[in-house]
Specification:
The protein contains no helices and eleven strands. With 122 residues, it is mainly β. Strands 2, 4, 5, 6, 9, 10 and 11 form a seven-stranded mixed β-sheet that branches.
Length: 122
């Protein structure tokens, strides 16, 4: 499956962004989907994940209550709504697909998008 992330940008602290990840190539609804992020000099970390039908969702503690993951299987797209953004949310955000998912561990994901930059200014 091919993944294309979009929606990143520059936003002030307290603002919002919505990331999108469009999938193509295989049956989107067969995959759990996740978002990860990687800040400069840091390892890639889990942000959020959603089950194949959207019924189960998981969040990192650092984003719980501020970010919401969702998916539209008819549009082959997964979203990450990010509210109350903080400077520490600055990173490249990646979407990923997990055939057995959704998981919270990076190594469980088989397919990755190219990443979209999110920058939060203070």
């Amino acid at each position: 499956v091919q993944l294309q992330a979009s929606g990143g940008g520059l936003v002030q602290a307290g603002g919002s962004l919505r990331l999108s990840c469009a999938a193509s190539g295989r049956t989107f609804s067969s995959y759990g989907m996740g978002w990860f992020r990687q800040a400069p000099g840091k390892e890639r970390e889990f942000v959020a994940a959603i089950g194949k039908s959207g019924g189960s969702r998981y969040y990192a503690d650092s984003v719980e209550g501020r970010f919401t993951i969702s998916r539209d299987n008819a549009k082959n797209t997964v979203y990450l709504q990010m509210n109350s953004l903080k400077p520490e949310d600055t990173a490249v955000y990646y979407c990923a697909a997990d055939g057995f998912g959704p998981g919270t561990v990076l190594g469980e994901y088989e397919y990755w998008g190219q990443g979209t930059q999110v920058t939060v200014s203070s």
